[in-house]
Amino acid sequence: MITDSETLEDFLGEEVVDPQATPIGTLACFWDSPDGTPVLLGIDVEELLDKTHLLPAKGAELDERKSYVTVQFTKEKVRKAPCLECGGELTPQLEKKVFAYYGASSFDEDIMAEDASPRELRRKSRD
Prior knowledge:
The protein is α+β, with helices and mostly antiparallel strands. The protein has helices at about 5-10, 75-80, 90-100; strands at about 15, 25-30, 40-45, 50-55, 60-65, 70, 120-125.
């Protein structure tokens, strides 16, 4: 399980696979909370290179020996996920859309309440 963004940073550009080790794409970027906990992953799917698909970091595992990231979702699920370019701004509305798509149980915290102030998520990508 991924616990901190420093470790995850070493996997930027590495392959992302589903639970059956079927390739999904590559880790393009991720967003973490101010305490350094990864929240969202940005995956570039080969056939859809013009979009970066978002998915929860919860449940993802790093395989240092094979240099890939295993996520809890299938390629088909990720292909239909909300998208955002790695350089784009993650708005509270888009974050809620990702929560709704995958379900709140896919995240470490509840969906933000309508009146909650936006969380500050920091983006990290290969620059």
